[in-house]
Specification:
single chain, 517 residues, mainly alpha, 4-stranded mixed sheet, 21 helices, 4 strands, globular
Length: 517
Amino acid sequence: MDKSLLQLKKVFGTLKQYFVLIIEYVQQNMKYLLFLIILTNLCYGSKLVFGSNQFDTIQMYANYERTIDWWLALGRFSLVFMKRIFENGILSVYFSNFLTMLFFVIAALSWSFLFSTFTPLSFKRGNWVLGGLFISTPIMAEQISFSLQNWEVMTGFAVVPIAIYLFFAGDEERNFYSMFLSAFLLAWTIGLYQNFLSIYVLGFLSVLLFKIDEIISYKQIIILCLKFVITFLIGIGLYFCISITVQKIYDIEPVGYLFDNVMWTKRSIIDSVYQIMKYTKGLIFSSQNYYSSILYGIVWILFLMESFFVKSVHRIWNFGIRILILISPFYFSILFGDGLLLRVQTVLPLTFSIVGWYLYCSVSDMKRIKTLCAGILAIIILRHSQILVHAFYSDYCAYNQDVILSQQIRANINTDFPENTSDKIIFINKKSKTTFIPNNIFYENIGTSIYSIEWLSDYDRNTRLADFYNYLGYPTSYVSPDEFGRYISMDYSNMLSKRYQEYIIYSLEGVSIVQFY
């Protein structure tokens, strides 16, 4: 048999072996599976009860195909493919939220199995820490709240461990096709959400940390890293090839959504470095937000300090890999020269869970310390789950408040301005931000009114509100940028108006203008 065909056959054998072994792993760890199912329901089960449809989810409800075209323009072809296969042109948040919970469990099992394949026995006993911290780290609420894409993104977390497994299997067997398949899976996950680039790198570095002492020479380490870089670049190349081809087929103009945000060329290097450091401090060491506390910073520092005490043949490499693991949530921040939106930060939960799990297993021989750590981790996981439930309930309350406010505005227009025959509504200014969240805890999107979105321009907010009104059953037309600019520049002091508790409604040319104050 031709050597290339033989290697190709081995790839499918490796892939089959992966699924056979992971099934065996699950059968041997049924208690762990039960733990993941219970924890996932505790953290995210409220999404099946407290339904809330806001932001981008409303836009997809209002115009499904427009969102599909937008994703294609962004290069998220994998996301579009899954929508076409598994949805009938209709978005159901309950369907999406249920599958999100399912793939959370599958993803946790996938990462646990990957590390169990490459780690000593003592580390395999701490899988509950890895899965528990990954599922419960509250920053994931920001991503999960976008129900239009949450379950598809979660499948990417389950696919990356397969890609990492194939890379290391291909390296051991010297099988190029296995590495190529790993690169293709990377391209697929980037097509779901671009931040999987960082997660793929994090997976490689985490496995390398465990394998580093098995490698005899520095030359072998460098060769392995070069193979990974080549595989990584092939994956990026495949992604762009597929994305451009799909955009050409569907005649979609690409959008520079990501690289338009690169700030290194738009401001001084000092300012960019300052913004990165500010973002890093806020993400890891701040106690002002709901997902983080000084505990995260302590865990980061302990992970680095532990490298000075661990017995390692390649101590410098060990320390360097740990640094690269810890900065994995900031790869895109470094690339852009700026901070990121919290919903993009899908790498932090996995980084935190890997680091926490590693530290816990490192003290496995010290029973008293291990017991103390287990107790602390259990409390952290329970507190995280409580924060998640509260976050989703806050979102539910904010959503219902928006529904009530929209009904009131529409009723006031119909009652007090019957001459307004146009179905256009112009919204000026943001609504004053109200919150159901105690103690000034910070959320980026969770619990925020669609009338108060701070990261949108006034015009974009109008477009989303038109979608929201249409979704609620109140036919509302979009206004063009020129129309919007003309209306907001007018003097309303002498126009027919009526003041309400939070807003004033003006009447002009049969159009309703709602101004918040």
